[in-house]
Amino acid sequence: MTKVSIVGAGYVGAATAFAMVLRGTCSELVLVDKNEAKARAEAADISHATPISHATRVSAGSYADLSGAHLVVLTAGANQRPGESRLELLARNAAVFREMVPQVLGAAPEATLLIATNPVDVMTQLSAQLAGPERAARVFGSGTVLDTARLRALIAAQANVDPQHVHGYVLGEHGDSEVVAWSGVTIAGLGLEKFMDAAHKPWNAEVQAQTEHAVRHAAAEIIAVKGMTAYGIGAALARITEAVLRDRRSVLTVSAVHGRYGAALSLPRVVGGAGLLETLTLPLSAAEEAALERSAQVLREAGQQVL
Q1: Is 300 flagged in the annotation as binding?
Q2: Topology of domain 3-141, per CATH?
Q3: 239 assigned binding-site residue
Q4: What is the rounded CA–CA span in Å between residue 46 and residue 130?
Q5: Residue range 106-138, pLDDT digits in tens
Q6: Among 223, 284, 296, 216, which Cα is nearest to 260's?
Q7: Ordered strands of the 28-32 beta sheet
Q8: How far apart are CA 174 and CA 15, in angstroms?
Q9: How far apart are CA 41 and CA 249, in angstroms?
Q10: Any binding-site annotation on 143?
């Protein structure tokens, strides 16, 4: 039996729970929220999908009900407002985490913590501090897993191929300073430009810049219209959770504290049953290395406010 708990039954928490049920991520799922009625309603609604998806036991509960969870997803916190950057959420959500993380660890001391609350990199670093160094491998954030998925989807659309055959990463901050590692993007083993040329598809500096802009500003554009994003991140969190529960050793750009950069940020990491198993080093161009350092500096400066 695999048990997962989600703390925060708002838009992202509910979308994550729904994605997990549709994908059959776990056998038991518990929603916890300060608004207990909301958690119960979301759990009931999602449970009604189980007869036509996967037989996941879905319920609502309190912190005490986190006991026995293999993994706890933290989505609780203030929502990002239209026009507000992820880093502007920092002070509000840091206060939430200082109260929440000790309670989660007290109820589920063996669980892996997966952080989704924005700004996710600083929240991940704060959670790691609160959890202590002995749990370093088991505290990480969703990072740029969704940004990377967006990149792959946009390139696939341009190339007219299955996005699962597009490989490439977005690194650094999950936010405005994130870095698209263009030098390492491949399709079916070919470098991006070589594939596009062979497939007679348009690709140049302008198309690349447009694609990067779309990746970087996707969330802001969605939030400006509908007030939040939930489905993409919900699916990403389900995917990360499965890497842990099923010991898949998946390479995912989750966020974790990295000594060289002095902050939590996203790099390709091997994720499995024991949490973070390895951080991979990509052969970046000089410009990409410099951009990644600038992104780390943004996060170090943001972290000084709360760490």
Answers
A1: no
A2: Rossmann fold (3.40.50)
A3: no
A4: 32
A5: 999 999 999 999 999 999 999 999 999 999 999
A6: 296
A7: 57-61, 28-32, 3-7, 71-74, 112-115, 139-141, 255-258, 263-266
A8: 19
A9: 35
A10: no
Give the Cα separation of 137 and 229 in Å (integer): 28
CATH number given to 145-303: 3.90.110.10
Tens digits of residue pLDDT in 53-109: 999 999 999 999 999 999 999 999 877 677 766 667 788 889 899 999 999 999 999
User: Is 11 marked as a binding-site residue?
Assistant: yes
Is 158 annotated among the ligand-binding residues?
no
CA 83, chain centre distance (Å): 21
Residues of the chain with pLDDT under 70: 80, 84-87
In the chain, the N- to C-terminal Cα span, in Å, equals 37
- Give, as one character, the DSSP assignment of residue 136: G
pTM of the predicted model as reported, rounded to 2 decimal places: 0.94
Domain ranges of the chain: 3-141, 145-303
Residue 208 tokens, joined: 């690349």
d(CA 208, CA 259): 31
SS3 (DSSP) at 265? strand
| Tokens, residue 283 | 């052969």
| Active-site option among 54, 70, 165, 174 | 174
116 annotated ligand-binding residue: yes
Does the annotation mark 174 as catalytic? yes
Q: How high is the pLDDT of residue 86?
A: 60
